[in-house]
Amino acid sequence: METEDRIKNSFQNLKKDIESIKKSIDSLKKDDFSKSDGRIFTSKPSVNSDMLDAVKEVFESGIFSNGEKSKDFEESFAKFTGAKYAIAVSNGTAAIEIVLQALGIKEGDEIIVPSYTTMPSIEPIIGVDAKPVFVDIDEFFTINPKKIERVITKKTKGNNSSPFIWKLG
């Protein structure tokens, strides 16, 4: 298949995907959440018409990242928090990786993490070529502060015991 045909095919597939998403948005608009039997389903989001319109506007623009909506959000969020800059990312894992990079965490550095965790809290550490160091949890399922000192070495640079990340001097 020639390059031009592959590009054309790719755009046709993208168009089909966008049409499918638009149909999904339309079906959400038809749902009547007021007739709920009281159960809350975590797999079915509660979405209002303003949210749907905003998503539809982005889909119709064809610019899913780094577009005007992203820039507007970043500027508004920076202003709201008093920060000089803000960066919109796709998820918390990406956000943690950016924070680790901003803190200068690199290959060979160690980051302390609770042993009772999930991959998204470890992936950013591995993503910057640092090493996760696991510490046992306490009765509250959080990192056991009494056991942290035992694993601190000269290579230890921080702690990813969400929701906080700290960097050692």
Our measurement of the CA-to-CA distance between the termini, rounded to an integer number of angstroms, reads: 56 Å
Mean pLDDT, as a whole number? 81
**What overall geometry do the principal axes of the alpha carbons give?**
elongated
Number of strands: 4
What's the alpha carbon Rg, rounded to whole Å?
A: 22 Å
Biggest sheet: strands, sense, closure? Answer: 4 strands, mixed
By helix and strand content, what is the structural category? Answer: alpha/beta
Commentary on this structure:
- The protein folds into 2 domains: 1-20 and 48-88, no CATH class; 96-167.
- Helix 5 links the parallel strand 1 and strand 2 (131-135).
- Helix 1 (3-30) packs antiparallel against helix 2 (49-61) and helix 4 (92-102) packs parallel to helix 5 (119-127).
- The longest helix is centred in the N-terminal third of the chain and has 28 residues, at 3-30.
- The chain has 6 helices and 4 strands; from the N terminus they run ααααβαβαββ.
- The protein is α/β, with parallel strands linked by helices.
Quick structural summary:
By secondary structure, this protein is of the alpha/beta class.
Mind sketching the topology for me?
Layout (H helix, E strand, L loop, with lengths): L2 H28 L18 H13 L6 H14 L10 H11 L7 E5 L4 H9 L3 E5 L9 H4 L7 E6 L2 E4 L2
Parallel strand pairs: 1-2, 1-3
Antiparallel strand pairs: 3-4
